Amino acid sequence: QTKRRAxxxxxxxxxxxxxxxxxxxxxxTTTADSSDPHASGAVIDTDRSRLLLPMYTPPxxxxxxxxxxGAIVNFTVPGxxxxxxxxxxxxxxxxxxxxxxxxxGTRVLLGELERDSLVVFTQDPRLVQALHRRLSINGRRAAExxxxxxxxxxxAVEITDQRLAxxxxxxxxxxxxxxAVQDDLRQYQTLASGGDLPRAYYRARHALALVRVIQRAHxxxxxxxTAWPLGDPWVASASTLDEHxxxxxxxxxxxxxxxxxxxxxxxxxxxxxxxGWKHFRHPQPNxxxxxxxxxxxxxxxxxxxxxxxxxxxxxxxxxxVEAAPMWVTTPPMPVRQGQVLEIRAWVRLxxxxxxxxxxxxxxxxxxxxxxxxxxxxxxxxxxxxxxxxAPSNGTLTVTFAxxxxxxxxxxxxxxxxxxxxxxxxxxxAVFQPAVRPTPQRPAV
Length: 444
Description:
- The protein is built from seven helices and 22 strands.
- With 444 residues, the chain is α+β, with helices and mostly antiparallel strands.
- The strands form four sheets. It has a nine-stranded antiparallel beta sheet with strand order 6-5-9-3-2-1-4-8-7.
- A hairpin with a 3-residue loop joins strand 2 and strand 3 (49-56).
- Helix 1 (2-19) packs antiparallel against helix 3 and helix 4 (175-193) packs antiparallel against helix 5 (197-222).
- It is globular, with a radius of gyration of 26 Å.
């Protein structure tokens, strides 16, 4: 895993070297719309060119990426000079792309092989030459690293597929994709041996894209009945989805211990404060905050916790909220190493928070903000359930952070130990590690 991360970082640094002139001397000017509902693009402008950075962000993409919904994705970039030509920029090539003037800007098409590339709009020959020189330095190494990652990920996805199949969660429809991945890797060897570096690189990158599609299919299959994917850390990686299946099966017969969170019913403010509940404010210009126990926010009982943030000047609300204006934290609860904990809360946001895309964040101190649950608006109450394991003896706190302007209701917060017993799934087949594919040499 460390070697894999090192290879990824090498590729990222190569790409950063290619585009360093834009963040160093340019300005973010606008956002480009696309034909994919989950894809958009950031545009950085300099006096001689424009750079489009495509971004693909489907739900839960921080866990498993997947691929864009169509074979071709088009982006409409506003403000591109009429004489500027569109070129695809990857770590191995800088080549023209199909583009045309349309209402609202210049439309550029990215096909199946180009979807993970950047786009440069320019007519400056010096810039074109400089980028070609940079590609000649790092192109071969970039292709080798991409092939290395694709080969390792292909092995990993085969292992995951076998493990899930042993638990009765196989996906036969992914088999053609897995065969296509192996074919891409064979083509890479043939093309690289023949000196066709750009085409070899694109075959390896295409294999990586297919692996993401397979991983996404497994992810959506095993989490289809899971309301809060980040509630179970096993779904944070495509390689541990089989552990998620085992864990959810164990939960069916697991016993819950006594309540360890004091005053989680949110009925009396003074007793909550005495027990160690704390309220924090992050002062920001033109933002006023308030916290209270009120019948309006009650899911059960007489009261519930209400968090509110609003523009101090109603006619001039901030367009973006840089940091959470306020948050509430539970008292620290003692936990012991290996203890599995079930964190539950009923929450409701009647309207989407403005100035932020994160909504109400629920953050546990064992995994931090990286595994935080983000709760959006809903017509009714939502029960959020989070499972965590204590890595060592210590304490656990849970934080409810209001990240934008609006209000959130919180009630019936609970933390209990989960004692996992029976209910484990019996494997249906003996697991055998996948065999690394042997590249085929081209015929002499």
